[in-house]
């Protein structure tokens, strides 16, 4: 399922070309992050969503976009040995960390497409990944994910909103730890998920998250995000 491709989608990103594709640039940033960090927070809201879905369908097929070191899928594996758990990320370092720690996950490095089988997924989760992707490319990913979901399948997305502490940077701004960022309004969320029924949207605040900064200071992340619960039409 390996799908790394040179960028042919410059017009999708709205960013000037630098010679490096969007996904190559993201991979470089995130490889650096995972080289020095192993986040591990089992009960994320994305995981809770997947637990509810898998408890009704223990052999279901779950896909996580931007799974990083697979902290979410790894925890699900420990609860649901018979589920098929698929994850992708641009960061090979994140995926390598996942493979060292967890067994039985189907992990692949994605480029600007995902190469998922049509109508094959029962559950989709995404947590804090699309907020690091240029919006036109994010829309292309969501459209492809929608095609890969079975009708009636459920999805959970968690995406920084325009009240996020770094929103003042604007779309395409670079924060000191996580690099490239975009921020979504409620109207943009409706457009992004036009192929879905939107069941619920919560605004979640994660105020005063402290994160190490390569420059040595300790920025405080006044994070706000939308948590979006969806059903594929
Ligand atoms: C804040 S981390 C979240 C990781 C994971 N979802 C979790 O909950 O631990 C954001 C992730 O998005 C990934 N990412 C950034 N751009 C991406 C892209 N174009 N395609 C896939 N993943 C991407 C990063 O490599 C990183 O692992």
TrEMBL record:
Domain of life the protein comes from: Bacteria
Stored SUPFAM superfamilies: S-adenosyl-L-methionine-dependent methyltransferases
A Pfam family hit: Methyltransf_25
Biological process according to GO: methylation
Region Disordered, residue ranges: 1-21
Residue spans of biased composition, Polar residues class: 1-10
Domain Methyltransferase: 62-152
GO molecular function: methyltransferase activity
Gene3D superfamilies, A to Z: Vaccinia Virus protein VP39
UniProt entry keywords in alphabetical sequence: Methyltransferase, Transferase
Protein's name according to its UniProt entry: Class I SAM-dependent methyltransferase
Native source species: Marinicauda pacifica
Phylogenetic placement of the source organism: Bacteria, Pseudomonadati, Pseudomonadota, Alphaproteobacteria, Maricaulales
